[in-house]
Write a structure and sequence with these properties.
By secondary structure, the protein is an alpha+beta fold. It is built from one helix and three strands.
Amino acid sequence: MERFVCTVCGYVYDKEEGDPDNGIEPGTAFEELPDDWVCPECGVGKEDFEPEGAEEEEEEGEEP
């Protein structure tokens, strides 16, 4: 499952659901979203999203 999380508000973009309220059909990959697509919750751009689980992987890789 391909999901991307907004690092500002926590909104999750799920490829399977798309963003139909903003014209994005279910099945649309995050990479295929238009460049001007913004988070429907807080309005930030795609650059403020990261793959779900990326933050957890970074934390696991850190040394105390």
